[in-house]
Amino acid sequence: MAAKLPGRPALRQLLSTTPRLTPKTQSRRRTCGSKTYASKTNASQQATRHNVCSVQTALRPTTSTLPNACSRRRSYASISAAELQFGQPVHETHPHLLRAGEITPGITAQEYADRRSKLAASLPPNGVAILSSSDIKYRSGAVFYEFHQDPDFLYLTGFNEPDAVAVIQKVGSTADYVFHLFLRPKDATAELWDGARSGEQAALDVFNADESGDVNNLDSLLPPIISSAGEVFTDVAKSTGFSRFFKNSGSPPNDFQKMIKNSKIRPLRPLMNDLRVVKSPAEIANMRMAGKISGRTFTNAMRQHFTKEKDLGAFMDYDFKIGGCEASAYVPVIAGGKNALAIHYVQNNATLKDGEIVLVDAGGEYGGYIADITRTWPINGKFSGPQKDLYEAILRVQTTSVALCRESSNLSLDGIHKITHNGLKDALKQLGFDTSGDAMNVLFPHHVGHYVGLDVHDCPGYPRSVIIKTGHCITIEPGIYVPEDERWPKHFHGLGIRIEDSVCVQPDTALVLTTEAVKEVVDIEALHS
């Protein structure tokens, strides 16, 4: 289909009946985005390669071990586009969401394949990486939460359904690999209740897997792959959710653990973090879109007058979605008055009082990528003297720290945190704060930032001590939270102020992804003028 890589028939080719390949030399045209590639095979080549498809694609050689893999008849070869049903949007069914060539908004089939190639290149000879999708989480009984895909799984496959397993199997010490995607089969009864599934054929034709199969047969599909593996890289070995795919699995050790007991097991997360931490231009574009939509929502919210935290939160969620985001990226913090002293206050059920300020930490999600923004503003539209003094002190430090988010600064997030910490300490001294002893641990108790991307706190476990480089996306979020403590000026008591932007590191500058959310005092107050 339009999201196809060279090497598999495009969906538009599947929409008309195509005859099987003949033993004669065939010339087949492959599409990828706007480019067209040609490749040839013949019967003698197939015979010498044990009937394995020998088509050389523009991306990489096909290494399918299935006989006649490239001559398989597509099951929906004569179905119209309007009748096609998949478990997630594709360009042919949702052209308002995806451009031709994209598997998920903004991310093409080619980019997903490039990611798998990079992972395969990081594996040792005959290494295997195994990932599991998220499963459906239930609130109670049959009442489920909205599905959210495992970010590592989504990053490599673009597949956004539950109950699936992906395997990247490196071929020897070459750059080649086999991409297996095991998933739920088509099931008319289940789909009547729960909506369409993509099915095994779509794993090949839409998501560019080399091999596919029913995930319910994983206990017979995985052993041949694992037995030939040099090392197995996975984070699912102890997952109780993953064990559900094995018919006889019970309490640990489950069947999967028995399968891998003779294999060298390595954690997959460090390899995935190394890939995910550097964002591609397409990823940055998605994050910029999430930031633009989310920033405008913040500015729109500042124009309004709300009397309840929950009403402000509802407005934010609505405006994210109506602006083009798929959803809110995380449970927001809507903290009026002293509620802002709790860093992650999420009850969001208090009233908003005239004369107080409100701290909002929220963001939207676009194409799976999120924006993380915090703004603090006066509920009545006008800062009081102490509010303005503390706010502007924090803003000056935040602006300075954001400017350091460039590769040429030769700093890590930890390094930026130290500079931010010292800047806030100096600013507070000028406002009359006693900053001796443990004062800063109370007033500024969190780190200045974290990585951001498919997750709010992206690449879990990736060290903040690494020197930032082009393509890293991070947050800068200094904040000061003043409890009722006699060590500090009384007119600042009860104020919690945080200012946060999502930033993409560039060679010699910082690209602020969330610039549409105003933060200068004059701009905030002008919104109520």
Describe the structure.
This protein is α+β, with helices and mostly antiparallel strands and 529 residues long. It folds into three domains: 1-58 and 65-73, no CATH class; 93-275, Creatinase/prolidase N-terminal domain (Creatine Amidinohydrolase, Chain A, domain 1); 277-526, Creatinase/methionine aminopeptidase superfamily (Creatine Amidinohydrolase, Alpha-Beta Complex). 29% of the residues lie in helices and 18% in strands. The chain contains 15 helices and 23 strands. The chain has helices spanning 11-14, 43-48, 109-122, 151-157, 188-194, 199-205, 218-227, 255-259, 269-276, 281-303, 309-323, 385-403, 413-430, 439-443, 521-526; strands at residues 26-32, 35-41, 102-104, 107-108, 128-132, 138-140, 143-144, 165-170, 177-183, 211-214, 231-234, 264-266, 327-328, 333-336, 357-362, 364-366, 369-370, 373-378, 473-476, 479-481, 496-498, 501-505, 510-512. The strands form eight sheets. Strands 10-9-8-5-11-12 form a six-stranded mixed β-sheet, with helices on both faces. Strand 6 (138-140) and strand 7 form a beta hairpin. Helix 10 crosses helix 11 (309-323) and helix 12 (385-403) runs antiparallel to helix 13 (413-430). It is globular. The chain starts with 10 loop residues before the first helix and ends with a helix. The model is unreliable at 1-78 and 249-253 (pLDDT under 50).
